[in-house]
């Protein structure tokens, strides 16, 4: 009545098939995790660049406002470090740089002759090309540069005041 069932009806998954499936899923999982890690790293780099760009522009605007409000603070061909953000009066420092997590530094200075034609030296009215830099700090130590910006600043004055 009941005959013997064929052996093939009780077949399951072999060990080799399980190992191949686990290997394929493992490789796919590693690829997905690597992609996520790369995405997170790229996002972090972009965030730091954007933040640094905003901070260095704030620094340049604060320096411009300081020199406009205080024409006597103008230094022709200002040596490197003349207008570091920590040397500006506190009321002119950008709020984001006041806390100490970031530092703004003037790292280069050179005459800029486009305004008055004086490229040979540093006259009183010579515009200055500055390279400003904002970097993050950790425990008082400056870390990697976030952003640099080249700006040209002309002596802020009006009328006959610039003829001296």
Could you give a quick summary of the protein structure above?
The chain is of the alpha+beta class and 164 residues long. Helix content is 36%, strand content 22%.
Question: Can you tell me about this structure?
Answer:
- The protein contains two helices and three strands, in the order ααβββ.
- The longest helix has 55 residues, at 15-69.
- It is rod-shaped and about 110 Å long.
- By secondary structure, the chain is of the alpha+beta class.
- Helices cover 36% and strands 22% of the residues.
Q: What sort of overall outline do the alpha carbons produce when their principal axes are compared?
A: rod-shaped
Distance between the termini: 122 Å
For the sheet with most strands, the description reads: 3 strands, antiparallel
**Gyration radius over CA:** 31 Å
Strand content: 15-25%
| Structural class label | alpha+beta
Overall pLDDT: 78
String of helices and strands: HHEEE
Helix proportion: 25-40%
Q: What is the number of strand segments?
A: 3
- SS element count, helices: 2
Weakly predicted, low-confidence segments:
none
Spatial arrangement of strands, main beta sheet: 1-2-3
């Amino acid at each position: 009545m009941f005959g013997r069932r064929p052996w093939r009806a009780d077949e399951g998954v072999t060990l080799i098939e399980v190992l191949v499936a686990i290997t394929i899923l493992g490789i796919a999982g590693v690829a997905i995790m690597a992609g996520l890690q790369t995405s997170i790293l790229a996002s972090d780099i972009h965030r730091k660049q954007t933040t640094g760009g905003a901070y260095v522009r704030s620094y340049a605007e604060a320096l411009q406002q300081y020199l406009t409000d205080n024409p006597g603070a103008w230094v022709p061909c200002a040596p490197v470090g003349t207008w570091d953000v920590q040397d500006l009066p506190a009321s002119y420092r950008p709020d984001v740089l006041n806390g100490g997590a970031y530092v703004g530094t003037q790292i280069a200075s050179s005459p800029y002759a486009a305004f008055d034609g004086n490229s040979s030296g540093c006259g009183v009215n010579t515009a200055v090309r500055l390279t400003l830099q904002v970097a993050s700090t950790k425990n008082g130590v400056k870390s990697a540069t976030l952003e640099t910006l080249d700006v040209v600043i002309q002596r802020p004055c009006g009328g006959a005041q610039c003829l001296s």
